[in-house]
Amino acid sequence: MFKCKTSPEVGGMGHSVKRKEDARFLHGKGKYTDDVKLPGMLHMVIVRSPYAYAKILSINKEKALAIDGVLAVITGEDLAQYNLHWMPTLLSDSQMVLPTDTVMHQSQEVCAVIATDRYIAVDGAEAVDVQYEPMKAIVNPFKALDEDAPLLRPDKEGQKDNHIYHWERGEREKTDAAIAAADVVVKERIHLPRIHVASIETCGVVASYDKDTEKMLIYLTSQAPHAIRTILALVAGHVGLSEEKIRIIAPDIGGGFGGKVPVYPGYVIAIAASFLIGKPVKWIEDRSENLVNGFARDYHMDCELAATKDGKIQAFKVSTLADHGYTDSSANPSKYPTGMFSICTGSYDYEHAFAELDAVYTNKAPGGVAYRCSFRVTEAVHAIERMVDKLAAEIGKDPAQLRFENFIKKEDFPYASPLGWSYDSGDYKQTLEKAMDMIGYADYKKEQAEKRAQGKLMGIGICTFTEVVGAGPSKDFDILGIKMFDSAEIRVHPTGKALARFGTKSQGQGHETTYAQILAEELGIPYTDIEIDEGDTDTAPYGLGTYASRSTPTAGAAAAIAARKLRDKGKKIAAHLLEVSEEDIEWEVGKYFVKGAPEKSKTIQDVAFAAYTNFPEGMEPGFEATHYYDPPNLTFPNGAYICVVEVEEETGAIDVKRFVAIDDCGNIINPMIVEGQIHGGLTQGIAPAMYEGIVYDDEGNVLNGTLMDYLVPTAVESPHWETGHTITPSPHHPLGAKGVAESPTVGAPPAIANAIIDALYPLGIKHLDIPITPDKVWDAIQVAKAKA
Amino acid sequence: MAKHKVTMTINGKSVTAEVDSRLLLVHFIRENLDMTGTHIGCDTSSCGACTILIDGKSVKSCTYLTVRADGADITTIEGIAVEGTNHPLQKAFHDQHGLHCGFCTPGMIMRSIDLLKTNPNPTEKEIRWGISGNLCRCTGYNNIVKSVQQAAAEMAKEKEASV
Ligand code: FES
Ligand code: FES
Hints:
Chain A: InterPro entries: Ald_Oxase/Xan_DH_a/b, Ald_Oxase/Xan_DH_a/b_sf, Ald_Oxase/xanthine_DH-like, AldOxase/xan_DH_MoCoBD1, AldOxase/xan_DH_MoCoBD2, AldOxase/xan_DH_Mopterin-bd_sf, CO_Mo_DH_lsu. By secondary structure, chain A is of the alpha+beta class.
């Protein structure tokens, strides 16, 4: 277990100190993008396509422009004059900012109305007359590659069909051979549906161009302001928006979960409008725009898991069809178009694996960004964890036992996975044992046997996942060429208080507290004396931002190393003040002392003061340090989750009785915050498992584009979560930390799905895709009964 | 657009204004009065981010016309405690880590004030149902429930002390 080195007052690692950022939020004084109000600010509302696929015949602005207060209607033709009607996606595909001839998905941006007031802008949007010629949309991704499927992207040179790319990892022949030779092979097609992060704050922007200074100030709901500034400079440099003239401020963010990583067309239109008009322009998405114009997941995975007859796993193969919508705008590192999907071999030790994926265009919104896990780990973990359970059921072995028999052993770390990762650390056996103890696994097994004897449906589901976060080492990881390091800059003031700035951006994770705790741990300056600042590209050091659980693994590490640089400088100053040589100085949290004479000491505050007032001759004055951290490897958090459910046969209603989550995220900075992150992630795990999924009809209309029918769990659907930890520190992270926020979203859905299927197994039901809703269960029960 | 004169009390202060008949109360509070603690998270009365108190009852202000609030007594998150102090719910949300991004928090607190007024000693289940009109995407609700429980206990103690 982790032992705190600092007192609660200093508040270093391991202390559950209360959050420093709370006060403003509790008093209604948070400052979110929609709270920004600038003099002369105009409002933008977007006209969107009612069709999934249509030619635009005409856009008539006249009636809109006749409304008092409507100043402009911006179309694709208008932007085309500046060559701003298309933009690149993060994966080097292209996306329309505004169309000039064709709309490719329902709710796509068609044109934008700028007015003096939001209500008038809405009037204007309603008055714009757009004529369309609807075409037959491709909705089913399996039909996208049919011979007679229309070519959706004739604009792309060399594009002959709707196939975007093929990707593969591992050894196909050897894996096929191992599967062919195995005693037992279980197969399943598993779909992870389109879902949306639906942060309670939608996306938005206030763009303000000053024609005199030529500076573009942008308040943006962005998890990655620095990267967005660079992209903007690359896209709009030719009209004069060069990088030093662009300042992006990401103010308080009302939840991100990956949905605030991309550049949305609305941002670009508002920025272009402000640039052209010379006044501030605000655009705030409404909820339906938010829910319908982006997505995560949407992988159809054909899985095969092979094993010996007593359950020793031998090979895993997964072939995936990915529905990307009309453009590939996934937010993945350049060399990883499928993110970290190749983590799909899971927590188990076996030799052969092969994963391949084909991505296709359809007439749906682009996205593939994130839902508290952008890098496709959720898909990967769902595939392996469902298949492991299916194998256990097939051979009649307890799924916990099957896992124990196949786990990678503690002593096998670092472990080279069959698809090329080097897992850094873990103790999977201990973690699952702890989860089983906490929930009382053996007792539930007994209860289940009794209930089954009475004809009742009760299920127990396990998921033992391995995550991969903290992207990433520069040799492999970049976004549009920019390496995925992150940064920290620390200034300790003469009075011993400090300001630290980061390239990341909190969206509720509590960085203002946890980063201060890291510095408190390393420097001994109380966390309350340290201000944390992020999100302003004019002041913060460059970094790739906060997503994919990367802040602690990257910027957190940068903070520790920058602090250690300061400590080294401080040592020289202390030696000078204590009139001994540097070798005679020792450090203990918060102070330097003379070896063998601990009464002769200087505090970090004394040293900071001396750095400005009494430093050794020849030394550079000041007490500041910066570090850009390039991680040597990723980190591999892991966990064991167990869920107990009861299903009512008559109605299909599912009752989650218990849910226990044991996480190993390495050393913990603030246990209270980590636990809070896990609670939140678990609710975002039950959401796709039982409630959420974007539904399309055959014409490509979204059927659940509001919060009335897209079911975000409330406090009633969300169970009481029970959490705990094991700790195996990351061997290569300076603090031994691993990152945590996405683990629960990754681990919960298969645990819940496994529990529900386990409950239904006596009826002969062997698989259901998530979301597993009561009506889906009820239908499956009727089919199963009819068969029986 | 027809204009209407409205007068109401907001956080103890009287406010008079000429407003469009279609102006939603949440916009009146945020845009006209520049009090941005009341948030907007949807347009279907689903999320509760806009919850305020009208004559002591929690109401979603995103689907409430300003003209309808003529003569009303309104409280927003900015008005539940004297500046520099905390309402027991504000303190409890801080103590129990009942907020992450803070976007749902004002609405959650305003709803919880009403909940504890009508049911000062709610069970966990009653709290969960009581706040089920308010969505939080960050916290998973465990700690929001705990926050409401802490505040209920503290408010009960305060009440006892004042009798
Ligand atoms: S903004 Fe009022 S309920 Fe969502
Ligand atoms: S704290 Fe973010 S929505 Fe509740």
